[in-house]
Design brief:
By secondary structure, this protein is mainly alpha-helical. It has a single domain, classed as MFS general substrate transporter like domains (Growth Hormone, Chain: A), CATH 1.20.1250. The chain contains 17 helices and no strands. Helix 3 packs across helix 8 and helix 10 crosses helix 13. The protein is globular and about 55 Å long. The protein starts with 10 loop residues before the first helix and ends in a 6-residue tail after the last helix.
């Protein structure tokens, strides 16, 4: 068996990876600001939750047709256009602030536009990974991706909240827009062809969508993981706003709330560094149950935290095993899917996986406004515990063997 070149020496992968890390840094710097900004304008957790919910909503509407289109279009061109368009959309927010014309509706509109473009970019980038990485290196590449994203999630929230509080409310969005410019430059420099095979006869849209869904349905582990991931993302979509409101309840400033999220990112980067070795040491089912179980235990502890440091440490532990979950399920799925079905199957998986994201975000805002953080903790902590139990009892997940 030939020796495989280390990932850090593979030009195409490193361009794809570095562009994504820079963009994630910008997204993390501005992402935490959306609910903070809406809270500052409206003083309503429910309205703040809609900024997150609307950003997730395009997944439900666009994901299946986008998966078909990504299998037919040049994936590099799609990623390039999305970077440029997302950067322009985000840049409109500080411009509106400078002109004293910012309204909540504008924030919501940018959230929808960015969410829609993210659908195209995410499916294209996921499908592109299999073109630049040897199949044997997909788990390692996934772990390295998670490490990069986790690093960005440490720096991003702290940077964003510091800029928001010390420099100006619009500056986190300026950083986000610049990150998209750098991401576009990295994609532009790629040499690998991401165009579809020539002379391919394409089925009608509905038939093409159904082909991807049928493939997903016949793979029981992938199908069951789509359902489990749907529940996990339902919980995950609620936690950022829950942490922000809980931080306010214990007297944390915006910068200290940024620290909470940075400590979560630190936990994620440690988890990403350990993700590969842990994935090899644990079975597929053990990895999934462990990841969900730890988060289920951590959520109720939010109510016992007296200050931002303890809240951040608990969040860091909750995030520690997230990369393990992603490494195991993502590498399993990508290795199984034929290249010509990557877009359609991944879009089908994501449709199920993100189906309840807007519901989780909106429900959290409603629970926080009506009953405070104890109600939100009870609902989402119990949901995560039920998911861990469901994964433990699922024989397909329990006995799954990852592809060689």
């Amino acid at each position: 068996m030939p020796v495989t070149t280390p990932l850090w020496r593979q030009r195409e992968y490193m361009l794809l990876w570095s562009g994504q890390v820079v963009t994630t840094l910008g997204a993390q710097a501005s992402g935490i600001i959306y609910p903070l900004l809406v809270l500052a304008l409206t003083h309503s957790p429910a309205q703040a939750s809609w900024a997150s919910a609307l950003r997730m909503l395009p997944y439900l509407v666009l994901i299946l047709p986008v998966g078909v289109l990504i299998d037919r279009w040049d994936r590099r061109r799609v990623m390039l256009v999305c970077h440029v368009a997302r950067g322009l959309a985000v840049a409109s927010l500080p411009l509106a602030m400078a002109l004293d014309r910012l309204v909540v509706g504008h924030i919501y509109a940018v959230a929808v536009i960015e969410g829609a473009l993210h659908v195209f970019f995410n499916i294209a980038e996921t499908a592109a990974l299999a073109r630049v990485v040897d199949p044997r290196q997909l788990p390692q590449a996934t772990a390295q991706n998670q490490a990069g994203f986790a690093t960005a999630s440490i720096v991003g929230p702290a940077l964003g909240t510091w800029l928001y509080q010390a420099v100006g409310r619009g500056f986190p969005f300026v950083v986000d827009a610049l990150s998209h410019a750098l991401g576009a430059l990295a994609i532009w420099r790629l040499r690998t062809s991401f165009a579809p095979a020539r002379d391919t006869v394409h089925a009608p849209m509905v038939a093409a969508v159904m082909e991807g869904l049928r493939w997903l349905w016949r793979q029981r582990v992938v199908r069951d993981m789509a359902v489990i991931t749907c529940g996990a993302n339902f919980v995950g979509a609620a936690l950022p706003l829950l942490l922000i409101v809980r931080g306010h309840e214990i007297g944390a400033s915006e910068a200290q709330i940024g620290l909470v999220f940075s400590l979560g990112g630190l936990g994620a980067i440690i988890g990403a560094l350990l993700g590969g070795p842990m994935a090899r040491a644990l079975s597929f089912g053990q990895a999934i149950v462990l990841s969900l179980g730890v988060r289920a235990v951590c959520i109720p502890l939010f109510l016992l935290c007296p200050g931002p440091w303890s809240l951040g440490l608990v969040w860091g532990v909750a995030m520690l095993f997230g990369p393990l979950y992603d490494v195991v399920q993502f590498s399993y799925r990508i290795a199984l899917i034929p290249d010509g079905l990557q877009g359609r199957v991944n879009s089908g998986f994501r449709l199920f996986a993100f189906l309840l994201n807007p519901v989780g975000a909106a429900l959290c805002g409603s629970l926080l406004e009506r009953g405070g953080s104890p109600w939100a903790v009870a609902v989402f902590g119990a949901s995560c515990a039920a998911l861990a139990l469901g994964a433990r009892l699922d024989p397909a997940i329990r006995h799954a063997v990852r592809p060689a």
